[in-house]
Amino acid sequence: MDDLGKTLVDGGAVREAGRASVLVATGPLKGTTYDLASEVVTVGRQAENSICIPSERVTRRHCTLRLQPNGRWALKDEGSLNGTFVNERRLPPDTWRELVHGDTIKVAETVLFFSDPRKGDGTASGDAIRIDRQAAHLEAQRLLAGFTDLRSISRSSRSS
Q1: At 145, is the secondary structure helix, strand, or coil?
Q2: Residue 76 CA: distances (Å) to CA of 134, 139, 150
Q3: pTM of the model
Q4: Which of 12, 38, 39, 85 has the smallest count of CB within 10 Å of its CB?
Q5: Per DSSP, which regions of 17-155 are E strands?
């Protein structure tokens, strides 16, 4: 961290310390962190979105994050076909849902972790450990599902 309160992430991109962000845990943009630098952040498949997710399962304009007057971020599904999920619960279309530090947002196969250090427990290292555990848990679930699929394929080929 330098004396201007900024940190280096994502291969040298400058990120402002203390700003809300989303970390992509799964999907085509895995490992990317996006600062929520404007009051409205759009997520979708089209390049015009603030966060463009290159997947056919993502709607052109899938969901929107908005900084509310109370300083908290909220999320709204824009009527997407596959839905937007917060902590594994599907959002009703066109309904704003306030986010809290550590929430998971799922857009098709992409999972994002919402981080707002101003609203967290005040310990950046504790928050990072929690997010790393969540990412590891999701990766373990994905690997276990793949292993289960392989076992069933193996069994069916033996019985043929």
Answers
A1: helix
A2: 23, 26, 37
A3: 0.67
A4: 12
A5: 21-26, 33-35, 40-44, 51-52, 63-67, 73-77, 84-86, 89-90, 96-98, 104-107, 110-115
